[in-house]
Write a structure and sequence with these properties.
Strand content: 25-35%
Low-confidence stretches: 76-81
CATH topology: NE0471 N-terminal domain-like
Oligomer: single chain
Structural class: alpha+beta
Number of strands: 6
CATH class: Alpha Beta
Mean pLDDT: 90
Order of helices and strands: EEEHEEEHH
Number of domains: 1
Strand order of the largest sheet: 1-2-3
Largest sheet: 3 strands, antiparallel
């Protein structure tokens, strides 16, 4: 599930748009703050080939599956079932 677009909201919060048509507002702080400081947030871009979210010219990247699972809290949902 590739990431096709992003909109930076505030701090570590982004709106993520996935290729299946879903979109989700998501605070990525827990996922990226150890690797991406707030002053580096504006470096966010999508790798067009892989559909992953990159920061700092690709030195930090998050694969789309990880983003999707994090955004929709898949792990916690499956644990509750």
């Amino acid at each position: 599930m590739k990431l096709i677009d992003i909109i930076h909201q505030t701090n570590y919060t982004f709106t993520l748009f996935f290729e299946n048509g879903e979109k989700k507002d998501c605070d990525l702080k827990e996922l990226i703050e150890k690797h991406v400081s707030l002053n580096q947030i504006k470096t966010a871009q999508i790798n067009p080939e892989w559909g992953c979210l990159e920061f700092n010219e690709g030195r930090v990247d998050i694969e789309p599956k990880t983003l999707y699972n994090y955004a929709y809290d898949i792990k916690k949902l499956s644990e509750a079932a």
